[in-house]
Give the backbone structure.
Amino acid sequence: MFSQLRSTGNRRAFLILAALGTLVFVVASGAVSYWIKNSHSSALLNATQDVLFSVFVALATGTITAGVLVFLYFSLFADTEAGLDTVACVDPKTTARLHKEDLRTTDTWFHDGHIGRWVRTEALPALSNRARDHGRPLSVVLALLDPNSEQLCDQYSEYRSLLHHSEPQLTTPEHFLLEILATITTAALYCQGPTLDVRIYFKQTLGFTRVDITDHHVFRTLVDPRAPCVVYSRHEGAPTQSFYDATRAGFENRLDALAPQSLTLPETRDMHSYEAIISFLELNNLRHRTDRDFADSLLRRMSSTYNPYR
């Protein structure tokens, strides 16, 4: 029975039924006890009324205690267990917690998405710091929308405009182009150090979900950060092991049809100036405008620490 209570809806239904059952039992117990105490029937009932009253009080107390314990168990532990060995649909807060846990332990991070903003602001810094502390490089693979495709940026912008969740800084195709370029530029900088091995691939098709794959979990998320995330794990013996393996193998197979981007940094290696940004974009044949407003907007995005799950 407990295996059917891992979803939030089933747990709520169970708790509601348990509460109703407890209430009915307590009311019935009180009614029977009241009748016994106030009855003037046979001597047998008079002789046993105190015993029955004590039994009913004990049963009612035990039922209430059991209901409280069941509530605490499923409220505090069920989500954690579901995230470990089952397919779990978790809320954004739990998604953020699982992301942080995996960033502390994984050696690889695969991202199959659109603009790569969360990876840029959260995953790359965290993985780089960990790699430096442990003295060994970690691997990051990013599959992003091709920034040179105006059609893809237009389609993605149109899709985002249809969502209830909107952000003022993400409303036009150029905004999404800037986000992709910020992720590419930031990843190129991390590639120059000894801590991260970052590979970037450009996709020619638009999907509507994002997939992040670590050594421990697969995360399937939507663009709206308020939407739930589907998670399944790699843990040996877990029912979701085959789903994890298939998702990771499928991602790697799709990459075989794409060519990794070979990115070149300008000689200055200082990417915080107008000249360096424009030089980097031109060296790597990335679509861009050459005015300072465009470069300044790109620099602001590169320095952003925005996390949609906070």
